[in-house]
């Protein structure tokens, strides 16, 4: 970087995303067509004729770099298997705040072994782990009311 060279990530990933973004925002049709054909994408006529460049950008990016597939594959490839969890880690996950595992009810303590087995059998208990909750104003929630 001291010699003015770009890092490899910038050269291979970010420059391509920035050039796509710039071409769509400036409405450079020739460059957009070149990008679409080189990536082998099929953009619908409706999206390509749309006046909002964000719609066009979303149509290209959703086919080129679908976020759901990228996140799922990253989680599958990078996160450790739940079967590799240690007993101490299970106890920490099951306890909230300053509570200790020994202070939990016996029924909850019995779930520790099921938590560590990650069994999918029909007789295995269902364990749900909520990692984070956000307070959301009711006005921000969708309302399915008939019009």
TrEMBL record:
Regions annotated as coiled coil: none
GO terms under cellular component: cytosol; ribonucleoprotein complex
MF (Gene Ontology): GTPase activity; ribosome binding
GO biological process terms, semicolon-separated: cytosolic ribosome assembly
Organism: Chordeiles acutipennis (Lesser nighthawk)
Name of the protein: EFL1 GTPase
């Amino acid at each position: 970087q001291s010699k003015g060279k770009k890092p490899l990530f910038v050269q291979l990933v970010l420059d391509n995303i920035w050039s796509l973004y710039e071409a769509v925002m400036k409405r450079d049709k020739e460059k957009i067509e070149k990008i679409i054909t080189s990536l082998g994408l099929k953009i619908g006529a409706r999206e390509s004729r749309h006046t909002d460049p964000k719609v066009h950008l979303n149509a290209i990016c959703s086919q080129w770099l679908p976020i759901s597939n990228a996140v799922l594959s990253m989680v599958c490839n990078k996160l450790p298997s739940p079967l590799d969890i240690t007993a101490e880690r299970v106890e920490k996950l099951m306890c909230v705040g300053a509570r200790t595992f020994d202070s939990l009810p016996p029924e909850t303590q019995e779930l520790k072994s099921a938590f560590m087995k990650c069994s999918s059998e029909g007789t295995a208990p269902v364990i749900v782990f909520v990692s984070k909750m956000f307070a959301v104003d009711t006005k921000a929630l969708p309302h399915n009311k008939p019009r």
